Amino acid sequence: MAETIRETFLRRNPKSAELHPRFKKVLPSGVSHDMRVTDPFPICIARGEGAHKWDVDGNEYIDYGLGSASLLLGHAHPDVVKALIDVAPYGSHYGLPIEAELEWGERVCDLMPCADKVRFVGSGAEATMLAMRIARGYTGKNKMIRWESHYHGWHDYVMPGTLPPFDRPASIGIPEGAIASVIVLPTDLAVLERTLANDNDIAGVITEGSGASYGTVPLPPGFLEGVRSLTEQYGVVMILDEVITGFRWSPGGLQKKIGLMPDLCTMAKVLTGGLPGGAVGGRDQFMQVMEQTGDAGHDRFERVSHGGTFNANPYCAATGNAALSIVATGEMQDQADRMAARLRTGLQELFNRYEVPAAVYGDASTFHVYFGGRSIEGLDANTLKNISPAIQQNFRQAVQNHGVDLMSRCSGVLSGVHTEADIDQTLEGFDEAIKAMLAEGILQAE
Ligand SMILES: Cc1ncc(COP(=O)(O)O)c(C=O)c1O
């Protein structure tokens, strides 16, 4: 009898299996990010180069996880590596401004339409946290509207609404005050308008530009434009979370691509060339609330305060500048988008050939597989949770067994260094994975 997907996985990954108990001994659930938990254990990675990575057992993967979508330039892009090596000997922190930070800030303001000014932070979550504080500081109001299932990091103000059921925060340990300050809505402009009309304490609306979880649940057509005009009408701050879409959807992010001007945007990932870091960019009038004027009363009591030891540190500023100088041409995004389109088409053809009712979709350089039918018509944040646990559990493992890794269970992102040959090989891997899932009865032909 043929091996099961799990048996193949165990056979291929003895070293990862051996390390797993040691991971579990020192790290809760054996990981440093909840999303890395996998049954029976996550593969342990040794190195990456370009569109590929290798695990501790020597297995090679074509990578569609790419550092949680931070590596638009692929693993260890030579210019990013050189920038890091060049600055490494000169120290990691001086506690004062550096020229590389100025250059980095100028690049961000040149590329991102809404960024008259930028403040660097330590991560994407810090960026959304600061943007919310700026919105509250600017308006003097307390509440933030967010959309069901959109991901903005892990801090207290974004845990309500991340996972269904949406009336329960995605974590315990969130203070009631924080929960009460967040209004979670379905992506429905009529509901937004009603909420804005009936509540006078709303500071802002935060939206993941791609739709929930890098586009897993796409936004209705015209939605972002609708949010823009309603936020303007009601005088609340529009925050566009471009942690994923920034520099990836286009050199100027989603906002440049669709010609939308938010009040504030949040960035991370590609911003630093795949190192730690993030930023909030915004129109002058909003970023103004961070300015110190020298007036003691104003600076102590009427200003948004912000710190962070490693903000714009020399290493991340150097890699950020190297990455953004490449990203600015748009060539990486074009290549990534082209290869993603080929991958989506090829994968859909495979499902069709095997008569498996699945829909492949995604914007820009992303792809998602919906195992609930041949179309994503009517797909919402709740529907996705109804996909069979066996499929969710096995798809990523099945493709890993054939040399392909994803970003999450049924989704991935591409880089500008994925080639036609990578896509061909990936489709062969998907083909084998689908056959294995059919053989085991995890997928059924219609
Ligand atoms: C849209 C979005 N916002 C915010 C974040 C949080 O970023 P970080 O993980 O750097 O804190 C993420 C992370 O994946 C994200 O996808």
Can you walk me through this structure?
The protein is α/β, with parallel strands linked by helices and 446 residues long. The chain has two domains: 5-75 and 330-439, Aspartate Aminotransferase, domain 1 (Alpha-Beta Complex), CATH 3.90.1150.10; 78-327, Type I PLP-dependent aspartate aminotransferase-like (Major domain) (Aspartate Aminotransferase, domain 2, 3-Layer(aba) Sandwich), CATH 3.40.640. It has 18 helices and 14 strands. It has helices spanning 5-12, 14-26, 66-69, 78-87, 99-111, 124-139, 176-180, 189-198, 212-215, 223-234, 253-258, 284-287, 296-301, 314-327, 331-353, 381-384, 389-400, 420-439; strands at 45-49, 52-55, 60-63, 117-121, 143-147, 182-185, 202-208, 237-241, 264-268, 278-282, 359-361, 366-370, 404-405, 411-413. The strands form three sheets. A seven-stranded mixed β-sheet has the order 4-10-9-8-7-5-6, sandwiched between helices. Strand 2 (52-55) and strand 3 form a beta hairpin. Helix 4 runs antiparallel to helix 14 (314-327), helix 5 (99-111) packs parallel to helix 14 (314-327) and helix 15 (331-353) packs parallel to helix 18 (420-439). The protein is globular. The chain starts with a helix and ends in a 7-residue tail after the last helix. The mean pLDDT is 97. Bound molecules: pyridoxal-5'-phosphate. Pyridoxal-5'-phosphate is lined by residues 68, 123-125, 128, 151-153, 208, 241, 243-244, 268, 278.
Summarize the structure.
41% of the residues lie in helices and 14% in strands.
